[in-house]
Design brief:
single chain, 316 residues, alpha/beta, Metallo-beta-lactamase, Chain A, 2 domains, eight-stranded mixed sheet, seven-stranded mixed sheet, 19 strands, 24% helix, globular
């Protein structure tokens, strides 16, 4: 259970020379899950060696342009590269209409299937052994955060237990290792729990998009391995954060503490901050560990045991 989180853009509202507009790629088993798609996303993907053909699902948090104006360009690039695999786009009805209208106006005929899913409260989408869930956040009427959750899997397979139960080596062992029940010739049922040691809990990653702090986010992020939270301002700009329905770094840290997450990553940083120091100082007073994301930061996360993760930062 291991994945990479790559921050393609970490700015707020407008790009800067060091921070581009919001986009985060989660790379897992060769597939890419893209959260938000600000201008320049495909260029950042190229820089990080992420193929547009590997993108499985795109999730847009809300209909502010800095979070999705890169979408049409990315779709065009996918088409020119002769993509054939279906693409899932999870977004509000406004954004779905925008994409459909943009493709129609430019007379773009996609050579691959586009599957649109409207984001609503309680939305869930299964992608093999990953579940994508949406939860309402406090920003615009169509603002949603996303939970990316891996399935739990059975732990270490113990051959001695299988043999003692009369399970012969071969295909039946493989079924048990995949988490499937089997039926022996004498009619006995053997379950994975009978021949394995414990369960490996899947990783849980939560991304808020733009939001004020909310109880809904605490519920969604409860026990998450990583919470990626809006941190547009420091506490001295609290009034501005409230006016624009964003969060301060300290508020994000309070949410992380209340939700008992393992790692907090701050993103969506206002252009007024040229250094991460003030944001970090604002948050670590109430919660640790905290990382202030920078563009092209890669975070590798893997499960160590039921309650622990190991994470490594690769800076650009």
């Amino acid at each position: 259970m291991s994945l990479d989180i790559i921050f393609l853009g970490t700015s707020s509202a407008i790009p800067t020379t060091s921070r581009w507009l919001p986009s985060i790629a989660i790379i897992r088993r060769g597939k890419v899950f893209l959260m938000d798609c600000g201008e320049g996303t495909q260029i950042r993907m190229l820089r990080m060696g992420i193929s547009p053909l590997k993108v499985d699902t795109i999730m847009i948090t809300h209909s502010h342009g800095d979070h999705f104006f890169g979408l049409l360009g990315l779709l065009q690039t996918m088409n020119i590269l002769s993509r054939r695999d279906p693409l899932q786009i999870v977004a509000s009805s406004k954004i779905i209409e925008f994409v459909e209208t943009g493709l129609e106006l430019t007379e773009s005929i996609m050579g691959f299937e586009l599957n649109f899913y409207e984001t609503v409260e309680g939305f869930k989408l299964r992608r093999n052994d990953v579940t994508i869930e949406a939860f309402k956040v406090e920003h615009t009427d169509d603002s949603f955060g996303y939970i990316i959750r891996e399935d739990d899997v059975w732990g270490e397979f113990i051959p001695e237990k299988a043999l003692s139960l009369g399970v012969p080596m071969g295909p039946l062992w493989k079924k048990l290792q995949r988490g499937e029940e089997i039926v022996l010739e004498d009619g006995r049922i053997v379950t994975p729990s009978m021949v394995t040691k414990g369960i490996k809990r899947g990783l849980k990653i939560v991304y808020t998009g733009d939001t004020r702090p909310s109880e809904n986010t605490i519920r969604a992020a409860r026990g998450a391995d990583i919470l990626i939270h809006d941190s547009t301002f420091t506490s001295d700009r609290l009034e501005r954060a409230m006016e624009t329905l964003h969060s301060t770094a300290r508020e994000a840290a309070l949410i992380a503490r209340a939700a008992n997450v393992k790692l907090l990553i701050l993103t969506h940083i206002s252009a007024r901050y040229t250094s991460p120091v003030s944001l970090l100082r604002d948050s670590v007073e109430v919660f640790k560990p905290v990382v202030v994301a920078c563009d092209l930061l890669r975070v590798n996360v893997r499960r160590v045991d039921k309650n622990s993760i190991l994470w490594r930062l690769d800076l650009p």
